Structures
1.
Amino acid sequence: QVQLVESGGGVVQPGKSLRLSCAASGFIFRNHGMHWVRLAPGKGLEWVAVISNDGSERYYGDSVKGRFTISRDNSKNTLYLQVDSLRAEDTAVYYCVKEAGWGGLDDNWGQGTLVTVSS
Amino acid sequence: DIVMTQTPLSSPVTLGQPASISCRSSQNLVHGNGNTYLTWLRQRPGQPPRLLISKISNRFPGVPDRFSGSGAGTDFTLTISRVEAEDVGIYYCMQATHFPWTFGQGTKVEIK
């Protein structure tokens, strides 16, 4: 059974950094691309980033490019999102999602981790 | 980037009646491999999103057959044949054909 547990969120001041983690289990982590998707309060879903199964390819959404870095440690079955230069508009619940075999997102999502950017 | 435009943004519906949501993309969503990666999701407050439909019209396991997806190219529709109370939530279309992947603005489905 696929399980994804996000952590690392919290309240942080604008301009500061956080590192989000996603512990994965129940599937062969190194075989799957992994995504981060966020949901801002009162706003819609936003795709944040993806990393290929071996970490060789990464893509980012325009609003986070240059400030966020996605990475993974296949030996630890863990996905990361380094979030730097945080802005108020980055306040959101961040979800990690496994890439499904058919090419899109898998239907197993964790509960997410809340990042609140506030002075 | 591909812009996904959903209409309507709010849809008050009567229980037992049909509902449909339109999603239009700013570019053709047919991938070079011939697939069209258009997905429908529903999000309820306090819960992670749930995937309903993949590749235009394929229901995910456990999704009731009152949900159906259709369309091609740049125009897509999610239809609920007979709305039930548990169907309330915000529905999103999402394209996964071109990076960066993008979502529609969301359509709030509520019961009249």
Note: Chain A has a mean pLDDT of 96.
2.
Amino acid sequence: AQTVTQSQPEMSVQEAETVTLSCTYDTSESDYYLFWYKQPPSRQMILVIRQEAYKQQNATENRFSVNFQKAAKSFSLKISDSQLGDAAMYFCAYRRAQGAQKLVFGQGTRLTINP
Amino acid sequence: DAGVIQSPRHEVTEMGQEVTLRCKPISGHNSLFWYRQTMMRGLELLIYFNNNVPIDDSGMPEDRFSAKMPNASFSTLKIQPSEPRDSAVYFCASSLNRRAQETQYFGPGTRLLVL
């Protein structure tokens, strides 16, 4: 069974600084998708960024980028120029490309932005 | 575009009562997912449907839980009878079951409290 691990329960960063959230996963599949979701206090799950495993190029979305290391099964999220609105729980998630469509989530990292 | 719609947003009920949660997926999406979020277990899939057909219900806790999708625009998750341990946030998500369009979009969730 696939598993996703986020080893940092909490992180904090100064406003305008850069922070990196870690995620590792375990799978025997070669084709899959990885996601980062943001959950602010409203509890809404918001997609931040997605990565397809067969693509070597790291995904970027404005201030958000990932470092995808397939061999190491690592998928970290970098947030540049942190803003107060980035404060939230961040969840890493995995999904197989074929077969079962369910998302497997990590435990989450609570990110605090210090003004 | 309307996102995934869930109702009610909050539900407080007493142990033993029947609870029905409702979900309207994004128009045109053909996959629908029900997830549950608790402090102890995090985010976990309960059941998902493809083209209105249940595909994987292995996450449904027990016979007290049931889910239906009578048509492409509506799904229900029912708990009967409810118990205090069912207290959680229940999310509905939808996606297209198609390569490169498989991202799951979440509704705002239903916060259930069983007294």
Note: The mean pLDDT of chain B is 94.
